[in-house]
Write a structure and sequence with these properties.
Elements (H helix, E strand, L loop, with lengths): L2 H22 L3 E2 H6 L1 E3 L2 E3 L7 E2 L9 E4 L13 E2 L5 E4 L8 H12 L3 E8 L2 E14 L4 E6 L15 H28 L15 E5 L15 E5 H8 L3 E3 L5 E3 L1 H5 L4 H6 L20 H14 L1
Parallel strand pairs: 5-8
Antiparallel strand pairs: 1-9, 2-3, 4-5, 6-7, 7-10, 8-9, 9-10, 11-12, 13-14
Length: 303
């Protein structure tokens, strides 16, 4: 595959991913990614069985992948964020001259953009692009990976503009979104893809709500600090219209109970007073009592 064909193939891949994002959102099923896209009379996949994927006929990887976590099992490779805010991506094996490692070295030298596929759950990936290989460390068997603006994909945004600081900032912003998606995936799995209050099962209408919010000293993105809530009940919880007691019983704020309005108020809010949260089955996923106690006190103060 010559340089011009490779460039056109990558442009087609990025356009195809944009279309997939409109269909599925930022988190995409592996099945959709495996189907690939049409290019010059053939079909190009964007991921394979290994973490570094080189399309047929090419020499430079199109994508690199971090495998999703599996309960009780470590990831095959443990990719880390370095002190510069950029990712450290493990070599394929320990052979510095392995074809896939050489391909990433070529991508670094020629500033060729890649797709980073971040596994956030079984069969679920968060694609991030453009990713660039910023450095190579044979001693540690790692490449340094940073994300950049789309204008930088093919030299349209000179490296001098913002440079390393821009890539570190964009990388951190992308990682925040990845971690939010991971949190949502774990919470929805724990709650069996249903709202913990009304049991709505349309995942496109479900959020992963924090019991103790971001910014709180204990507001970690972990399942025991999460609730699977539909969008209306997420908003009601955040605004202290609905509270959740430490014993998982729901309370609706007294002034809301006294209101007279249409069926949405009656059946969407008031009807859940003194009902019980549909909590996860696994003890490890249950809302943590001390988190609920603190959050419920805030609800009582608001009422």
């Amino acid at each position: 595959m010559d340089a011009t064909t490779d460039r056109l193939m990558r442009m087609a891949a990025f356009t195809w991913l944009d279309d997939l994002r409109r269909q599925h959102g930022e988190v995409m099923p592996r099945t959709a990614l495996q189907e690939g896209f049409d290019f010059q009379g053939g079909r190009v996949r964007v991921l394979g069985p290994q973490g570094i994927f080189i399309p047929q006929g090419g020499t430079v990887p199109l994508s690199i992948t971090t495998a999703p976590e599996k309960t009780g099992k470590p990831r095959p490779y443990d990719d880390q964020v370095g002190p510069d805010g950029l990712l450290r991506y493990r070599y394929r094996g320990q052979d510095v001259q392995h074809r896939e490692n050489v391909g990433l070295r070529t991508a670094m030298a020629e500033r060729i953009p890649l797709i980073y596929l971040w596994g956030i759950g079984t069969g679920r990936y968060f694609p991030v692009w453009p990713a660039f290989v910023e450095a190579d460390d044979p001693g540690m068997l790692t490449f340094t990976i940073g994300f950049d603006a789309e204008q930088a994909m093919f030299g349209e945004l000179p490296l001098a503009i913002g440079g390393e600081a821009r890539r570190a900032y964009i990388t951190q912003e992308r990682l925040v979104r990845v971690h939010q998606a991971q949190f949502r995936q774990k919470v929805l799995v724990a709650y069996r893809s249903a709202c913990g209050i009304c049991n709505l099962r349309h995942t496109e209408l479900l959020d992963a709500a924090h019991i103790l919010p971001d910014g709180h000293p204990r507001g970690e993105p972990i399942v025991p600090n999460g609730l699977s809530l539909c969008k209306i009940h997420h908003a009601a919880f955040d605004r202290n219209i609905i509270g959740i007691r430490p014993d998982l019983v729901l309370e609706v704020r007294s002034d809301i109970l006294e209101e007279v309005d249409g069926p949405m108020l009656r059946y969407g809010l008031q009807a859940f007073d003194k009902q019980t949260l549909h909590a996860p089955k696994r003890d490890a996923d249950q809302p943590r009592v001390e988190f609920l106690e603190e959050r419920f006190q805030e609800f009582r103060d608001a009422g």
